[in-house]
Structures are given as structure tokens and as C-alpha cells.
Amino acid sequence: MCVEKGSDMSGSMRVDVAQVNVFLKNANLTANEMLTVEKPGALTVVNTQRTLVPKDTHATELSISPHIQESSEARVVDLIGPETDYSTYIEFGVISKPNYPIQPFVRPSAFGANKAKIFKAIEAAFAAVVRKKYG
Fold first, then answer.
1. Bridge partners of residue 94, in order along the sequence
2. CA-CA distance, 36 to 44, in Å (whole number)?
3. Cα–chain-centroid distance for residue 16?
4. What does the pLDDT look like over 56-113, one tens digit per residue?
5. Which conformational region is residue 49 in: left (phi greater than 0), alpha (psi within -120 to 50 degrees), or beta?
6. Which of 13, 65, 77, 91 could cross-link to 70 by cystine, CB 3.0-4.6 Å?
7. Which residues contact 43 (CB under 8 A, 6 or more apart)?
8. Pick from 42, 17, 95: nearest CA to 34
9. How far apart are the first and last CA of the chain?
């Protein structure tokens, strides 16, 4: 998940940048507070991936976790997903094996119906951080 001011990366969530900038400027959040705001959204993605992934050996399910790459007052970059070598094959299938089942679990965790859950989780965390900071 990458939420960044002015970002238009393929696969990233689109956000009204002007509104985000106003919130961030007025809230004056620290890097740790930004992490606190982002964490519930990341956990929503992680929990959905763990629910949707096929569970033959549970190795891929257990390897799904968030990895904070960067955190500052204006940006949090969190790589979320599985770490098994074969997780790509589960998500996209195998070209050499046309009957290999394609079982997407990463993409649905960030888009579709789950996108609203992610934003609600982040919004609630943001409100809690601002309330705590400013009363």
C-alpha cells in the first residue's frame, strides 16, 4: 500500500491530494502518528489476504505481513503481501500449466469492496490520533 501526496502509481489507491495535504498540514502529524494512522488499513489488507489465500500448507498465509519501507510526516510506504516463492503462481497462475487454478488473493485485498473497509479503518485511526493530540 502506498499513500503518497501527488502519487499516481498503477495499483495505488487514488486519493484527493488537496484534501490530504490540508489534513496533514493542519494535523501536523509526526512519523509515528502517521504509522498509527496507516496501521489499521494495513491490517485490513493483511487479514483479507490471509482469509482469501488457498491454505494447502498455510505457508503463504503465515508469510503475509506488512513491511514498513518508509515513514515520515508526509508519507508512509508499506509493502504488504506474501513472501513465499510460489505466491505469484497462486495469484496469477502458471503459463506452462493452463489448468493451474488462478486464485487471486492479493489484488482483492486492496480493491473492490475491501477498499472502503481500508479507508474506514484509516479514517477512524486518523480521527483518534487527531482527538488524542488536540483534544
1. 97
2. 14
3. 17
4. 899 999 999 999 888 887 788 889 999 999 999 999 999 898 888 899 999 999 988 8
5. alpha
6. 77
7. 66, 121
8. 42
9. 29
